[in-house]
Amino acid sequence: MEKPFSALFAMLESTMPGGVHAAEGPFQDACERLGVRVRRIPFGRRSMRESFASRLVVRLGDVLGYAFAVLRERPDIVHLNTAYDRPAILRDVGYAAVSRLLGQPLFLKLHGSDRGLARDQGVFWGMLSRFVLGTAAAVGVLSDEEKRLFLAAGYGAERFRVVKNAVN
Asked: What does pTM read for this prediction?
């Protein structure tokens, strides 16, 4: 018997602001109905009131948990629901490093992008951005305009896909 396709999803808590859960929850449910083995891992902020120290400890724990989940589950793909801004890049560099180290295919779905950062990354942010985005097997963006933004910043077109939110 053939092993079912498996996906590990990382997404913010449903209590956090934004529409990610409204779009991605139905997508994950549809994947399960189609026979994909779906696993979910904690990711990002748990509360808007986290202290800096708490955020740091929880984020490090999340990245370690991610490494163990990848080693235990060996998913076919990891689907990381994220954004393209400075806090997200800092958070995601650990996931990219673990993915690269373990040879884990990673798909980044960007739910918004800092256009100023994409246009003028500077040395430090450019290096981190290229590492995170370059580690991904593919990057999903929400519009053709957003894709053009990354192409203008020098990223290859083959890595970026326009992926609409899955909402009924």
From this structure: 0.88
